[in-house]
Amino acid sequence: MHSQRHLFPLATAMRVSMRKYNLMIFKQDFIAGLVVSLIALPLSMALSIAVGLPPENGIYTAIIAGIAAALLGGSSTQVSGPTAAFVVIVAPIVAKYGLHGIIWCQIFAGIILIILGSARLGRYINYVPYPVTTGFTAGIGLVIATLALNDFFGLGIPKLQGDYIEKLTLLASNMANFNPYEFMVGLASLLVIIFFGKVTGKIPSQIVGIAFGTLVAWIMSKYGHDVATIGSRFSYEIAGVKFQGIPPYPPIFHLPTFNAGELFSFPDYNEFKILLVPSLVIAALGALESLLSATVADSMAGTKHNPNSELNGIGIANILSGLASGIPATGAIARTSVNIHSGAKTPIAAIIHALFILVYVLLFVPLINYIPMAALAALMIHTAYKMAHVKQFVHSVKTAPRSDAIVLLTCFILTTFIDMVAGVSVGIVLASLLFMQKISSLTQVELSHKGNSTHHLHLPDNVMVYKINGALFFGTVEKAFEDYNFVHDHVEKLIIDMENVPMIDMTGMVALSAMLKAIAREGRQIVLCGTNEITSSIISQLSASTSSCVKTSASLKEAIS
């Protein structure tokens, strides 16, 4: 039973949190869920619009993923749903493959996440360097803010496509279409979002800003200055009849079908090959964002999440979201933070937030349809700014070690001007290379004999000590063995002192074995001094003729005697 639970640890946080649940805790969860739902509703719509889909697709994601991830995940206070980080990945997929493509990408990504969680790989998220995450999130924030300028300025561009330079060029070439009324609504919303939060933290400034922008737009419409709203921009059909706005219906699950050409039809082999790479990217980002958010939640709430359970939970949430025509979901750091500050104690708060959103869709769609597009653009700009951590980014560039600053700027530039995959991939490789360079500088070699012995022990004339300080791996072998033609002619015994070698990889063992073979051919006695684990590994790599010339010793003193 224990092994099965550890292999697929679903609902860990829920089981732990519900042990002492009472009415007082429910009240705290209820209030937190209500507050978060007010932020999540407009943000989910804005994110769906940003990727090129109608608002309801983001709403369905917030409802389905909000419930599924809370029930099945590994964090007590995390809120999951669509996030800004996915925009730069999902938008190109939607533009190229449509809703069908993104549905199957997130279903495949969900399966991958479950595999990662079942393989207990959640803890390895800590291996992603901080400059990489800071760089690519700042790049994503800049791209999202740029995308939002279209509706913020009321330019009316149908789709902002192409790379970042092409997007900027398209925005600049359409500035003649600047709509001052759209801009006034967007600016009013943005200013309220920014400054109302400084007045009081009890009411989410985002919802106040959206409400104020909606009021401004309504007043303008009374004077003949209409601005684009959700109701005027989007529509849906029922039995061939077209209705404006978003449908006032709950998300509906669909079973995959083998009928080609349908929205939920299984991809054929060629489609699968095309969608596999973006699915892997969605899974990687989903895992990264969800576990980082859970870690932040732990630091704020004093809790402890189960990373493998969290991967399983967000994996299932993405599969269910895909089957309900949603978009990819992951842990949302901002909504999680609001959830905790609002008093959330258990995953029930996240479930309540999702249920409130469902109620809004069923009862208040006529009001939701009045929300201006410019107000949602203002919300996206504010979200992008918070996501980019501008002050922290600038501070890191100024104060961080040069190597970390290079990695951070590289990730930022590549994410902005190419894509997130290039930014993260190159960033991790670059960070690894620079790290190996630092580690290799810590590996030092000392050569001691009677004339220059640095040891307190007396060295006979015919004994020489070759001491290695530091790790022996593929990044340090060249430095450690760059000149082993050091043995004086009169030396009969060579001691390889490896007492300060904490680890050795296969490359290090092969390089050391080659050196020992060369010295053994000269007829000299060799003594390996170090831990039994390392010396035994080296001896196992030697041929019988070479190993006969090599002895091992637990200490340098014993080796000299």
SSE inventory with pairings:
Layout: H1 2-7, H2 12-17, H3 23-50, H4 55-72, E1 80-81, H5 87-118, H6 130-152, H7 164-173, H8 180-199, H9 205-222, H10 230-233, E2 235-238, E3 241-244, H11 269-301, H12 307-323, E4 330-331, H13 333-341, H14 348-363, H15 365-368, H16 373-388, H17 390-399, H18 402-417, H19 420-442, E5 444-448, E6 463-469, H20 477-480, E7 493-500, H21 506-520, E8 525-529, H22 532-540, H23 544-547, E9 550-553, H24 556-560
Parallel strand pairs: 6-7, 7-8, 8-9
Antiparallel strand pairs: 1-4, 2-3, 5-6
Structural notes for this entry:
The structure is a single chain. With 561 residues, this protein is an alpha/beta fold. The chain folds into two domains: 2-8 and 23-432, no CATH class; 444-560, STAS domain (Transcription Regulator spoIIAA), CATH 3.30.750.24. Helix content is 62%, strand content 7%. The chain has 24 helices and nine strands. It has a five-stranded mixed β-sheet with strand order 5-6-7-8-9. A two-stranded antiparallel ribbon has the order 1-4. A two-stranded antiparallel ribbon has the order 2-3. Helix 3 runs antiparallel to helix 13 (333-341), helix 3 (23-50) crosses helix 14 and helix 6 packs parallel to helix 7 (164-173). The longest helix is centred in the middle third of the chain and has 33 residues, at 269-301. The two termini are 56 Å apart. The relative contact order is 0.15. Mean pLDDT is 88; it is low at 1-10.
What integer value in Å does the Rg equal?
A: 30 Å
Form type: elongated
Low-confidence stretches: 1-10
Overall structural class, as computed from helix and strand content, comes to: alpha/beta
User: What number of structural domains do the residues give?
Assistant: 2
User: Oligomer, anyone?
Assistant: single chain
Number of E-state strands? 9
For the report, how would you describe the main beta sheet? 5 strands, mixed
Please indicate the percent range of residues in DSSP E strands (runs of 2 or more).
5-15%
Quickly count the helices: 24
Mean residue pLDDT: 88
Distance between the termini: 56 Å
Helix content: 55-70%
Largest sheet: spatial strand order: 5-6-7-8-9
